[in-house]
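Preliminary data (for renewal application), 6-O-phosphono-beta-D-glucopyranose complex.
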Amino acid sequence: MSVDAPENPFLDTLITRQRAEPCTVVIFGATGDLTHRKLIPALYNLAASSELPPQSKVIGFARRDKSDEDFRTELEAANRKHSRQGHDDALWGSFAQGIHYHRSEFTDTEGYRGLAKLLDDFDTQRGSPANRLFYLATAPEYFHVVLEQLAAVGLNIAPEGKWARVVCEKPFGKDLKSAQKLNTTVSQVFAERDTYRIDHYLGKETAQNLMVLRFANEIFEPLWNSRYIDNVQITCAENLGMEGGRGAYYDTAGALRDMVQNHLFQLLSLVAMEPPTDLSADSVRDEKVKVIRSLRPLATIEEVAQNVIRAQYTAGFVDGQSRVGYRKEDRVNPQSLTESYVALRLRIDTWRWQGVPFYMRVGKQLPRKATEISIHFKTPPQNLFRTLEVNEGGNVLVIRIQPDEGISLRMLSKQPGVLLRMQPVKMDFHYRTSFGKSSPEAYERLLLDAMAGDATLFARNDEVESAWRYIDAIEHAWHDDPKIAPPMHEYPAGSWGPRAADEMLGVDGRVWRRI
Ligand code: BG6
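Predicted structure:
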């Protein structure tokens, strides 16, 4: 497919968003994995494409003792490994001049006074005060204390004419109660308009394209409802397990909390929401939160058992490599009752979606990494070709979030020849070939948006709480009383999940899309 110049005003609005403003980014938990793998490479790539506002600076705030030079050296090694557009020594040299390190305990008010002084010194050198972006990349148990300490030394108040914002990494709470508590702490320190709750799935190019696909084209929206759509499937498969010591965190979370409450619900909202009145952050988020609020609650343990399947992987092979079972993974409890896979059948109680099931599945150690949304259309009211044998019928629109981002539409076509034979064919659009360049990393887009004051692609307080409300009901059914809890199923590493997940769709006369 070729690419035409945008003529649509909706597209123009998306392109001309606010501009990012110069700021100092303070990363709490700067010695962690996220800073090395994602944040610094994202900032470096923004610099490489001249999108990072000039005079921006980064301060790493963490507990380990190290100099600016030590910090820059370790970040350089990480950037060589993880930068999307490669690593250029000269560019890194000038970019790294703006990186500094500040050692402090997260609980030590003196450390925050030191940070305030450092920021003031930079302002003096620059000759004017800078905006401030505080990035919480610590373990979640430190979020409260960092916020409280920022307020204690007044760093939440921006210098005259400037802004101070906070970006909260996930997980934002581990249930409704803790999310509400965190929202309360945040709101005492920063206004909601200055609070940016990251969900990196919203920064993925194809997730953003969902709104363009639906609302900038005339042909899809009239069909986007229960009259024409039979079911919607969202799959997020990963071919990794608990590498790099992740088991310690993951075993306290599980697939439902780790992926469904945030990433999958965000994708679901984008697919199912009503058109927003405009593209402002609140108009878009108003519509998204309505979807989550309209999810039909799972009121009893039986309803959870019928609509949610949980499972753990057992030993197996992924990509020809042998993998241990979940309970044998490093830093995972050998008796763990944490799910590494979950499949759900959801109902959205709105006019648009009455009778349309939304199936979602997410899991570790599946055969390959793939995230996609598939829209399965109903079959025509009268099947003129019923005497012809076709194994797979029905139009399917597939939105591939990753890898190989793109969109395809499957339809039935006549096979060439004198006989009337049908075969499914695909119209396929690939980002890479159509646009000839790789998409920016989610964190590039999201950091830039936070610097520009655009919260559209960040979760609002009510979105997060509504999602937890739904998830909590499932967690309670699973964990409150083990004697009556729905079973924990198993699947061999390298398979597409437990048989029970297939059976859940089988009861409805449907199957998961083969990926
Ligand atoms: C994170 C989860 O939020 O997303 C991880 O904590 C998961 O468990 C990751 O692996 C997946 O992100 P992506 O962008 O690789 O699909």
